Amino acid sequence: MATENKSIVRRLYEEVWNKRKLDLVDELISPSHALHDANTPGSQIGPVAYKQQVVRLTKAFPDLHFAIEDIVSEEDKLVVSWMISGTHKGEYEGIPPTDRKISVDGITISYIANGKILDSYVSWDALGLMRQLGHAPPLGKTIVAEGSHGLKANTITINGVIVVYLSGAILFREESTSLRTFVKDLLNKSRHLVLDLGEVTHIDSGGLGTLVALYVSARRSGGNIKLARLRSHAHEVLQITKLVTVFEVFDRAEDAIASFNRATATG
Question: pTM for this one?
Answer without folding.
Answer: 0.66
